[in-house]
Design a protein that fits this description.
CATH class of the largest domain: Alpha Beta
CATH architecture of the largest domain: 3-Layer(aba) Sandwich
Number of helices: 12
Number of strands: 13
Structural class: alpha/beta
Number of domains: 2
Helix content: 25-40%
CATH superfamily of the largest domain: Response regulator
Strand content: 15-25%
Distance between the termini: 40 Å
Length: about 325
C-alpha cells in the first residue's frame, strides 16, 4: 500500500469507532467496573497520552470511579523494567492494557497473548512487529499510530521551506528500532526531490551517538525518530543543536517546548484521546483483532519562534498560515 493510500486507510479507520461508549457499553456498579491498566516508560503517572485516554473515555460517557478504575505502571525511563511492570498489571487482574510507545507495547505483548492491548504513539506498528496488518491487526492488539514513519518526508520539506539554503539533513536513530529504517528511506526519497543530502546514522552505543553529534554543523538539519531508547537521542540532539546552531525537526508537539525548531505530527494527549474510542469498543465486546489500527487524526505543525529567531530564520508566511502554533 502506497504512502497516500496507507495514510487514507489509517485515518478513515477512525470513523469506524465513533460509537459513544455510553450507548453500547455503559456498565453498572452491580455488573462491572472495568480495570484499565496503563503502561509507560514515563517519569510520572500523568503521561499526556494517559491523560488524553482518561479525558476521551469521560467524553464517551465512561465515568472514572463509577465505570472504570485505573492501574498505572510507569518505569521512570527504565526500559528494562517494562516487562516486570506489564506482568504486574496482569497480576492486578486488569481487563485491558493501554501501552504508550513501541517498547511498552512490545512488553505488554510479551506478557499476554489474550488480554486486550491498545497502543498509542507507535510509529509503524507493522514494522515493529506489533500487528500483522493495519486493517486486520490480528491477535489481541490494536491502537493508534502517530504516523512518525509516514510523515518523515513532510518534516524535511518544512525544514527546507524555513531555510531555503539547507543542504544536508542528519537522520539519527537507534538501530534497535526497525521502523526507523523505513522512516530514513522515506526521508531520503523526499530529500532527493529537494536536492538535499540525507545522512542516515543508525546508532548502537552512546559513544556512536556522541561521535555523530560532534559532526553536526551550523545550518545542518536534524531529524529525530523519537522512539524511547537508552540512548536518549532527543535530549542529546536538542542540547547539541543549540550549540551547533542546527535546525531540528521532531514528530511530536511535545518537543516544541523543549527547544525543537519544528514539530510536525500528533500531540501525545490527542493520540490518547483518540485511542479512547478503541478502548471503549473493546470493553463493549469487540475483539482487538477486528478493530483496524488508526492513524493519528490530528496532525499539528508547531514552530518555535524563539529558536527560529536565535538561528536568524524568518518564518515565511506560508509556514505561519499552516502552523497550529508559533511559540514566542
Amino acid at each position: 500500500m502506497g504512502l497516500v493510500g496507507r495514510r487514507q486507510f489509517l485515518i478513515a479507520g477512525s470513523a469506524l469507532l465513533a460509537t459513544p461508549f455510553a450507548a453500547k457499553a455503559q456498565p453498572t456498579r452491580e455488573t462491572k467496573i472495568y480495570r484499565i491498566g496503563t503502561l509507560t516508560a514515563a517519569w510520572a503517572v500523568n503521561h499526556p497520552s494517559v491523560e488524553g485516554l482518561r479525558a476521551g473515555l469521560a467524553a464517551l460517557g465512561m465515568s472514572e470511579g463509577r465505570d472504570a478504575v485505573f492501574e498505572h505502571r510507569f518505569t521512570e525511563g527504565n526500559l528494562k523494567a517494562l516487562p516486570a511492570a506489564a506482568a504486574s498489571l496482569l497480576a492486578s487482574r486488569v481487563d485491558l492494557i493501554f501501552a504508550t510507545g513501541e517498547n511498552a507495547t512490545l512488553a505488554a505483548i510479551q506478557a499476554t497473548k489474550t488480554l486486550p492491548i491498545v497502543f498509542a504513539n507507535v510509529g509503524d506498528p507493522v514494522a515493529s512487529g506489533i500487528v500483522r496488518e493495519i486493517g486486520h491487526p490480528g491477535a489481541n492488539v490494536s491502537g493508534v499510530s502517530n504516523l512518525a514513519t509516514d510523515l518523515a518526508p513532510k518534516r524535511i520539506e518544512i525544514l527546507k521551506e524555513l531555510a531555503p539554503g539547507l543542504r544536508r539533513v542528519w537522520f539519527i536513530y537507534d538501530v534497535a528500532a526497525p521502523e526507523s529504517r523505513i522512516a530514513a528511506r522515506n526521508a531520503a526519497d523526499a530529500a532527493g526531490v529537494l536536492k538535499l543530502e540525507v545522512l542516515a546514522r543508525p546508532l548502537r552505543t552512546p559513544e556512536e551517538l556522541r561521535a555523530v553529534l560532534s559532526e553536526i554543523g551550523p545550518g545542518d538539519g536534524v531529524l529525530v525518530f523519537e522512539r524511547a531508547t537508552s540512548l536518549n537521542i532527543p535530549a542529546e540532539v536538542l542540547e547539541i543543536a543549540q550549540r551547533a546552531r542546527a535546525l531540528t525537526a521532531f514528530s511530536s508537539a511535545f518537543w516544541s517546548k523543549y527547544g525543537a525548531l519544528v514539530t510536525y505530527g500528533p500531540d501525545y494527549y490527542a493520540v490518547g484521546y483518540q485511542a479512547a474510542r478503541q478502548v471503549a469498543k473493546i470493553l463493549a465486546g469487540t475483539p482487538p483483532r477486528d478493530i483496524p489500527v488508526e492513524g493519528a487524526n490530528k496532525i499539528e505543525l508547531v514552530i518555535n519562534g524563539k529558536v527560529a529567531k536565535a538561528l536568524g530564520l524568518a518564518i515565511p508566511p506560508s509556514i505561519l498560515l499552516r502552523a497550529e502554533r508559533v511559540i514566542e
